[in-house]
Amino acid sequence: MDLKDKLVSSFMAFENNVDVEHPVHDIRSEAIKNFEEKGFPTKKEEAWKYTSLKGLQKIDFSIFPKEVNALGYKDVKKFFLHEIESYKIVFIDGIYSSFFSETTHDGVDICLMSAALTKPMYKQVIDVYFNKIASKDESLTTLNTAFSREGAYIYIPKNKMPKKPIEILHFSTGNEASLMLQPRSLVVVEENAEVQIIERYQSLTTNEVLTNSVTEIFAAENAIVDYYKVQNDVKTASLIDNTYINQKSKSVVKVHTFSFGGKLTRNNLNFYQNGEHIDSTMKGVTILGYKQHVDHHTLVHHIEPNCESHQDYKGIYGENSTGVFNGKIIVDKIAQKTNAFQQNNNILVSDKATINTKPQLEIFADDVKCSHGCTIGQLDEDALFYLQSRGIPKKEARALLMYAFANNVLESVRIPVLKSRINRLIAEKLGVRLGFDL
């Protein structure tokens, strides 16, 4: 039985474990039909031209974990931002861990999707927002919708801001020989509210794990959302991350993606601007080696006038790694005075490394300011020689040049402790100690 058939047949068992009268039963049932019809995406589809899932489909993934593997704090301490206080929503092999978590209902709701989907007190929010912007056609999103049950639920009411940032952490322990996880999260930030979120998926063993994640984010008028994705997993972990963002007038949403590890990582990041004077920002740093593969697939849809979007992705690729950037900006006819910027710059530090980049603009308005571009190259030999002539060893000189190349993405990180952590991760990936911190 291949993975698709296994997932379809497992859906009945999944539904037997939840109430068929559940409010989202019909949504799940329709979603599994869509996935059964479409199956996994293939390289014949333009959006997946450079990323193949064939290898993953040959693995006999467990769909449901048999039991929870106990973890101690020492096993996971280094993955938390323990230097500051934060709310924490922690999952171990897809199951909520109350031991590691710190949730709250003190003026805001920072808790579990499973509770939000089943308890009447959350019904109004679920009815308005759940599965409203997630794609009904993209097969992996519909697969996640079919199995949607657990994940993070974050609701920030009007004029509120949590006292602390929120960390969402998903750990896989290797309790199964190979495991597939499908977390589903919902983030709703009402008018004049603000939130900071750090998200991480981390495997603690070398067992195969495939995570197919979907997150829906709603930013109301004047809302501010600061979202950080830290991807530094082991070489047997694969992640397909689908994020859908709906913005209203004068809202600001920033998503930073730091891709430093994993076997195969696919980031589908979709912004929909439904209002005027909206600001959308996507920034990313990718540093890969070995045979790692990262695919950034972005969309910004400018639907109304007087809005801005800014995309800036930097990639450093070594050994046999592969990078993909496929960014699209759509400007509707009514969306006059749009200011959209898109840039993807890459450095290949190995003759065997590959980058496929495709920035795109689809503009139907005539009074806009839009630009896009990409670069692919090697390190500047003149700059390298200059640093060496000042007594800096070649290895450290190369690292400094690569750090400077990626540094402007770090400048917009608003959580100092996270900025320092990312700075150290970059130094680790470059194989040197830079001798300074941020």
Structural overview:
It is a single chain. This protein is of the alpha/beta class and 438 residues long. The protein folds into two domains: 3-274, no CATH class; 379-438, no CATH class. The chain has helices at 3-16, 25-38, 54-57, 73-76, 113-118, 123-129, 139-146, 381-389, 394-410, 416-430; strands at 87-92, 95-96, 109-112, 152-156, 166-172, 178-181, 184-189, 194-203, 208-219, 224-231, 237-247, 252-259, 264-273, 279-288, 293-302, 308-317, 322-331, 339-348, 354-363, 369-377. It is globular.
Mean pLDDT: 93
Report low-confidence residues grouped into runs of 5 or more.
none
Gross morphology is: globular
How can the largest sheet be summarized? 10 strands, mixed
Indicate how many domains the architecture comprises: 2
Distance between the termini: 51 Å
Task: Give the DSSP E fraction (strand runs of 2 or more residues).
Answer: 35-45%
Helix content: 10-25%
Strand order of the largest sheet: 2-1-5-8-10-12-14-16-18-20
Structural class by helix and strand composition? alpha/beta
> Based on DSSP secondary structure assignment, what is the total number of beta strands?
20
* SS element count, helices: 10
Rg, rounded, reads: 21 Å
Order of helices and strands: HHHHEEEHHHEEEEEEEEEEEEEEEEEHHH
